[in-house]
Specification:
Elements: E1 4-10, E2 17-23, E3 29-34, H1 37-43, E4 48-52, E5 58-59, E6 68-74, E7 77-82, E8 88-93, E9 100-104, E10 108-111, E11 114-115, E12 123-129, E13 145-146, E14 149-150, E15 152-154, E16 184-188, E17 195-199, E18 226-231, H2 234-240, E19 245-251, E20 255-259, E21 262-265, E22 275-281, E23 284-289, E24 295-300, E25 306-310, E26 329-331, H3 338-374
Parallel strand pairs: 3-12, 12-15, 18-26
Antiparallel strand pairs: 1-2, 1-10, 2-5, 3-4, 4-9, 6-7, 7-8, 8-9, 10-11, 13-14, 16-17, 17-20, 18-19, 19-25, 20-21, 22-23, 23-24, 24-25
The protein binds zinc ion (ZN) (3 copies).
Residues 189-191, 193-194, 274, 289, 291-292, 294 line the site of one zinc ion.
């Protein structure tokens, strides 16, 4: 391919590195946003942005497929994530009509050897998938338009056997567990290997510091909620393998793990079930499920009592807002929190702006509705 464009991809720890070559005329490659429960629970995010690529990945030595863990998400879909850092990098689908390789668009590292060029001219978005099955709407209202154009919605047929509803994976509940127990909401990854419970704030208890945003120290305006953000920084984007990671800032004391029918404190090392640990920088510990790759926690040593929890794992009932859990979480919707967006804008300015616009518009609608309720 003389006119080939050489795309290279990498996980957060860079042990996984592969290339995909595509004719220049095929760019931009069409990607799609997906809101399905498989994507949310294998990534720990509220959506994914993957792209069907024209050729299989070519591994860049010393990297090899052996650096990845394979997870069979459905009989038709295998997901590959880095065994060391947890970044979801590739999917392989065998469903008729959709077979082939899909790449996590967030992991693009270089174009024709040029690093940091961003994904703007490489990936293009026109559709969002599985918008109807998300309890409470999830991130669907945040993805209204891209570049001023509405995304087309695609949903599986009603009788489609693909499990895309919000029902937990059948093996994800163990005896004695309920979706919401002891006033807490359950959180779990797709394989069910990581499972824990999160409590809403107890009125009158001071949880400060309740924000780990260094440039934007703040506490939730509504003291019955935890603060939540979309983080578009390079590290979070790569850790999850998605354009933005959705984090809830929660005190460790509000998280419990069910052991033999009793709620126990989250262990100091943040290990739960099948989780693995990756230290992405000296003060930062990230945990992910070693079986299905879901992002679970981010912890910074500078905020010892707090943890960032991957919102995509929450199993909040509809009364608490469903997937987005916005009756338990106060989402930051303004786009002036630089540390969350600056790096993301370099990666894909249009997509980041699209989500920021969607967030702001959604936030305005929510604020208006709550004013109406209190009037
Ligand atoms: Zn890695
Ligand atoms: Zn999906
Ligand atoms: Zn898992």
């Amino acid at each position: 391919m003389n006119d080939a464009t050489h795309l290279t991809f990498s996980c957060l720890c860079q042990r996984v590195q592969f290339a995909i070559s595509t004719p220049r005329s095929s760019l931009p490659i069409t990607a799609h946003v997906c809101h399905c429960s498989i994507c949310r629970r294998t990534h720990g995010t509220l959506f994914t942005v993957d792209a069907h690529v024209p050729s299989p990945p070519v591994w860049i030595t010393p990297s090899s497929p052996g650096e990845c863990t394979r997870y069979t998400a459905t009989p038709y879909l295998k997901r590959l994530f880095c065994s060391t850092c947890g970044t979801h990098v590739l999917d392989y689908a065998v469903e008729a009509g959709d077979e082939g390789w899909y790449v996590s668009s967030a992991t693009l590292a270089a174009v024709n050897g040029v690093k940091g060029a961003g994904a703007g001219g490489v990936f293009d978005l026109k559709t969002q998938h599985c918008t109807k099955s998300v309890s409470g709407g999830g991130a669907v209202p945040w993805w209204k338009t891209v570049g001023g154009v509405s995304l087309q919605e695609w949903n599986p047929d009603e009788d489609d056997s693909t499990p895309s509803s919000d029902a937990p994976a059948p093996h994800a509940l163990v005896d004695g567990e309920t979706r919401s127990g002891s006033g807490s909401v359950r959180a779990h990854c797709h394989c069910g290997g990581v499972s824990f419970f999160v409590r809403s704030p107890v009125p009158g208890v001071d949880y400060s510091p309740s924000s780990v945003l260094t440039t934007h120290a703040r506490v939730p305006a509504d003291t019955t909620k935890w603060l939540a953000v979309n983080c578009f920084c390079d590290q979070c984007r790569l850790a999850a393998g998605v354009l933005a990671a959705q984090w809830a800032f929660v005190p460790i004391s509000a998280i419990t793990v069910l052991q033999q029918g009793s709620h126990m404190a989250l262990p100091d090392d943040l290990r739960v079930g099948t989780s693995k640990i990756y230290r992405s920088s000296p003060p930062v510990t990230r945990t992910f499920c070693g079986t299905c790759g879901a992002t679970v926690f981010y912890h910074h040593a500078g905020w010892p009592g707090m943890v960032d929890l991957a919102v995509g794992l929450l199993d909040a009932p509809r009364e608490l807002g469903g997937a987005r859990a916005d009756r338990m979480l106060e989402w930051i919707v303004e786009d002036d929190v630089d540390e969350l967006v600056v790096e993301g804008r370099k990666y894909h300015a249009e997509w980041v702006q699209s989500v920021q616009n969607g967030l702001r518009e959604w936030g305005a609608v929510v604020a208006k509705a709550s004013l109406g309720q209190s009037a």
